[in-house]
Amino acid sequence: MPRSAADTRRFRHGAGRLALDFIRTLDGRGTPREQEELPDAEALFAWIRQFGPGGGVVAVAPFAAVSVADARQLREAVHELIVVARRGEGLTAWRSLARERVNRAAAAPTPIPAVDAGGRVRWSAPDPVAATLSLIARDAIDLVDSAAITRVRACAGPLCGALFLDESRPGTRRWCSMNTCGNRAKKQTNRATKHKLHTGS
To answer: Is the pTM of this model over 0.90?
Structure first.
C-alpha cells in the first residue's frame, strides 16, 4: 500500500472486534466533540496498516482507486447493523441500503496469507482496501449472529460514543478504555469530591 506521513497517525484500538475498532474512526460519535478520523485516503491507508492482518496487506496488482466515502458509508452501515442487533429488534429492522453495503463488502475476497522464504507470514490481495473492508464486514455479520452481541456496550463516557465488547467475567465494564474515558471519569469524580469538601456542600 502507498506510504505517507499519515502512517505515523495512530488510531484507538482495543474495542474487542475489528468491526468495533473500525466504527470508532468517527471519534466522539453523537457528541459535541465528534471528529472524522478518516478524512482522506491517506488516513484510510494508515488505519488499514495498523489494523489489517500482519500489519498491512500488500497489493498484488496495480493499486485500485479508493473511495474514502465508500469506506465511511460502510462504517456507518456496520454501526447501524450493530446498534439494531444490540436493541434486539431483529435484523429485519435494518435498512436495506445499509444491509446491501455490508453484504457487498463482505462478498469481496479477503487477504491471502503466505509464508515467505524468510519464514514470515505475508498477507496479499489484489485490492488491499477492499480486502480489509471485507474482513470488517464479515466480522460485523459474525458478531451480530453470535451471543457476543449481548456483550457489546456503549462507553459511559459522555464525550466518547464508542462501542466495545465487554469481555470481563462479570460483564459490568463501563469504559471503552480505563486509560482514557475511565481515567477522565475518575478525575472528574475526584474534582467533584474535592469541591464538595472545600465548599462544604
So the answer is: no
